[in-house]
Amino acid sequence: MSQSKLEKIAILGLGYVGLPLALALARAGFDVVGFDTDTRHVQALQEGRDRNGEVSSQSLSESGATFSSNTADLEAASAYIISVPTPITDAKAPDLTPVRSACETIAPVLSAGDLVILESTVYPGVTEEVCGPVLEASSGLKAYGDFKLAYSPERVNPGDAEHSLESVIKVIAAQDDTTLDRVEAIYAPVVKAGLHRASSIKTAEAAKVIENTQRDLNIALVNEFALIFSRMNLDTLEVLEAAGTKWNFLPFRPGLVGGHCIGVDPYYLTYRAEQLGYHPEVILAGRRINDDMGRHVAQELIKAMLARKDNPARSRVLVMGLTFKENCADTRNTRVADIVDELQSYSAEVHVWDPHVHKADVAREYGISVISEPETGTYDGIVIAVAHSEFTDMGSEAIRALGKPGALLYDIKGVLAKSESDLRL
Fold it and tell me: Could you write out the DSSP letters of every residue in 65-103?
C-alpha cells in the first residue's frame, strides 16, 4: 500500500461538496471519517440516507466511510479537509464563521505532521492568513513547521451527474512542493480528469473565486439585455438565438442567479479588493443586476395582470420551484424567494410548489410555506421558476390546467415554446 493510502482523512462538512468527496476517498482505499455538526444529517447518513438526495443509499453503504458528529472521532486523522459553506452577511461581506469554526474544531486534535486542506471558496489569503492563525492559537503548533496548509477548491455542481468530482480537473496548491506532492497523492486516485498544480495557495484561491465571478458577469450581461429588450417588446431568447449563429457568441441565457457559489463568491473578491483600496465597478454592477431579477419577474407579472384589468391584490399565483437550480434540494441564496416576496408586497396570495425541498428548512430560512400539491384550476398566474424534470415533463397543457381559464403563464426558464407561454425572460 502506498504512503498516501495510509492517510486517515477527516472531512469536515458533509454537504454537496464534503459528502461525495468522503465517499470517493473511501472507495479509493483511504480510511475516511466524515464529520458534521448537524446531528440529524449525520444520523441519516449512518442509516444510509442523504437528506440532500445527491448520494444513493447504495453508495453510502458501499463506500466504507464512517460518519460522526463527535470531535473525538477526529483525533486519529492525519489529513483534514474543510468543505464548509462560505456565505455572506446581510451587508454582502464574507462570513468566515463556518471556516473559523471548522479550524477551531480541528485545532485541539491537531498533531505535528498533520495536513489541513481547505476546499471552501474564499478570497486570496484566507487559508494562510485566517485558517493558519486559528489553528495555531488552539493547537500550540506552528503552520509551515509543525503542520501544513493546502488549498484545493471544490468544483461541485449540485444535480449535475456529468460534471462530477471524478470527471473535472481539480486545482491543488500547498505551502511547499513536498506538501503539494502529498496533496496530489490524496486526490489523484479519485480525480480521473487530472490535477492542476497551482504555484501558490493564493493563486488557487484567486482562480476559484474568479471562475464563478466570470459566469456571474456573463449572466448579468444577458439579464441586462433582457431588461432592455422587454422595453422594446423583443423576445430575448429569439435575439440570443439569432446572435448565437456567430461562431464566437457565448451561449448564456437570462435567469435568476442564486446558490452557494455564483451569487455569493464575487463578494469575496470585491471585499478583498476594497480592503486593498480598489473599488470594483464591473463586478458589483453585475451583482446588482442579477440580485434584482427576481423582483423584475414579479413586477412583469403584476404589470401583465394590471394590463388585463386584473387586481393583483385579489390574485392567486402559483410559483413552480424554489431551489436555486433544477433537480436538486438546495435552496441556498435562491432568488425565487425574491419573486415570492415581491408578489406578496402587492397582496397577492402566493403558493410555492417544489417537490425537492425540505419544507421545514424552507420555513425556517425564508418563512415560506411550501405546498404539497397545487390546487388545480384556481390560479390567476403561474410562474415556472425552476426547470425541475417533474415540471418540464408536464408540458404546457398540464401546467395551464393548474390555473383558471386564461391564467397568465410566466416561463422564466424558457422550458416551453414561446407560443405556449404568455411571458418569459
Answer: -EEES-GGGGTT-SEEEE-----B-TTS-B--HHHHHHH
Angle between helices 282-291 and 265-275 (to 10 degrees): 140
Q: What is the grid cell recorded at 383?
A: 410562474
Average pLDDT value for residue range 217-225: 97
Helix (H, G, I), strand (E, B) or coil at 25: helix
Q: What are phi and psi of 331, to 5 degrees?
A: -110, 10
Cell numbers 420551484: residue: 321
Helix (H, G, I), strand (E, B) or coil at 11: strand
The SS3 assignment for 24 reads helix
Question: Counting Cβ atoms within 10 Å, is residue 399 exposed (0-12), middle (13-18) or buried (19+)?
Answer: buried
Cα–Cα distance, 7 to 14 (Å, whole number): 19
CB count, 10 Å around CB of 300? 19
Q: Is the pLDDT score of 227 beyond 60?
A: yes
Does 103 qualify as catalytic in the annotation? no
Question: Which residue has 462530477 as its cell numbers?
Answer: 164
Is it the case that residue 4 has pLDDT exceeding 70?
Answer: no
Distance between CA atoms of 219 and 257, rounded to whole angstroms? 8
DSSP string, 38-63: -HHHHHHHHTT--TTSSS-HHHHHHH
Q: What percent of the chain has pLDDT over 90?
A: 86
Please list the alpha-helical segments (H only) found in 121-167. 126, 132-139
| C-alpha cell read off for 90 | 446581510
CB atoms within 10 A of CB 289: 21
H or E segment at 196?
A: strand 195-197
Q: Which three cell numbers stand for residue 217?
A: 458577469
Contact 189, 3 (CB under 8 A): no
Mean pLDDT (the chain, rounded): 94
Place of cell 397577492: 348
- 120 is written with which cell numbers? 471552501
| Residues comprising the chain, all counted | 425
Q: Mind listing the pLDDT tens digit for each residue in 166-212?
A: 889 999 999 999 999 999 999 999 999 999 999 999 999 999 999 99
CB atoms within 10 A of CB 394: 18
Select which of 103, 131, 261, 328 is catalytic.
261
If phi > 0 it is left, if psi is from -120 to 50 it is alpha, else beta; for residue 327 that is left
Mean pLDDT of 34-59: 89
- Please check the confidence at residue 1 and state whether its pLDDT lies above 50: no
